[in-house]
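Why run this: before we spend reagent on co-expression, it is cheaper to look at a predicted model of the complex and decide which construct boundaries make sense. The entries below are exactly what would go into the expression plan.
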Amino acid sequence: MKLTPEEKRILDGKEGEVKAKILRTLVEFGDVFGAEKLVKITHEGHLVTSFGIGLIKPLFRIMDEIIDAGIKSSVPFTVDPRPIDYENVKCNLLNKLVFSKIMYSQQKRYEEQLSKIGLKDSNSFTCTCYQDEVGNQPKYKDILSWAESSAVVYANSVIGARCNRNSGMLDLFGCIIGKVPYFGLLTDEGRKATWVIEIKTTKKPLPQILGSAIGLKVMEDVPYIIGLDKFIGDKLDDETKSYLKDFGAAAASNGAIGLYHIDNLTPEAKKLGKKLIKEGAKKYVIDDKELEKVYNSYPILWKNKDAKPELCFIGCPHLSYNQLLTWSKNIVNGLKDNNRKKVALRTILTTSPQVKNKFIQTQEYKDLIKTGAKVSSICPLMYTNNPIAGKKPIVTCSNKLRTYSSSRYYKDDDLLKIICKKEVK
Ligand code: F3S
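The model came back. Tokens follow.
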């Protein structure tokens, strides 16, 4: 990789050994992918590592080294959601013990470390940092050092910013140096589509299943999707952005998609159209039958497949404000239709702290809370991903949560039935 005199100076240790190690890591990471240079980041950071898991000791040691060397991030950053919220996601004594003494024993220490290095504020814990209410919103063509897969795919595709699928710590290192290696999704060539996806369904596909189908097929490639604007329109309004948030998260977790283009809708597709498609791109046609096939392929990982669900999570990635309002109204009305006052199982809706603060002011929030449902800002995956909570029969409408845990996926309408009368198919 070609380095500037300034970068060489840092690499030679002129700004200390720790900064030299941080830059060396970025350079070696870039070298692996054939990056020719480093380029400046132009927007705030977002870190994927938000949890103080006691077992990952090197993480806390590295953070201490950075702090002791007096190094700070060149830009403020937000981070993924916290793993625990005892107030809204209650735990029994054993669970609490496992969380506080074993799983997340270093949470407090880690949050203090994040603050010292550049965390925006104590409310900056969400995977949907790009939402209006949260305010970490890149612009078209901004260069980012992020790693959270659902946020990276959103920023690349819906905003037209540029970010590779980095990993934890590399996101922080890029923020500290203020630069990232130039390769892959940062380049015009790397943003071209090698797949054309034709949507030939008879109705609007569920974003969670459509994203899953495309992710499973194209893996880390870039798809150009034709025919979806017929169902979701050609404008990036709140409803469409929420759809794309969930679609992208499913595509990034069921496969490894970091960027997609939607014909006539996403910014680069609007600008460049089919010029974004590479010669010889492969083709994948999606119809109703294909989506049903993908849906039916999801394994049920519960120990007892016929168990009654005990816990429901909605909001992975975190719900947008309009999604929170819609789910609240649907739950309240669904219970009324079933002559019930309370949800049939523990139901947690997750959203960013900022969206939650806004939602708390509404009548919909008051009505929802009366049903026994809770609103939290945790990451459901971090909550479920341990031997005790993981044994529970958990249901969700998130394809990302299904992929990374033993939670069972249900389509939104079916999940609502479970919440309102515990009806399980
Ligand atoms: Fe967000 Fe956690 Fe899901 S980070 S996307 S709520 S796995």
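The pocket of FE3-S4 cluster is lined by residues 80-81, 127, 150, 249, 316-318, 379-381, 400 (CB under 6 Å). The two ends are 56 Å apart (CA to CA). Bring this page to Monday's planning discussion.
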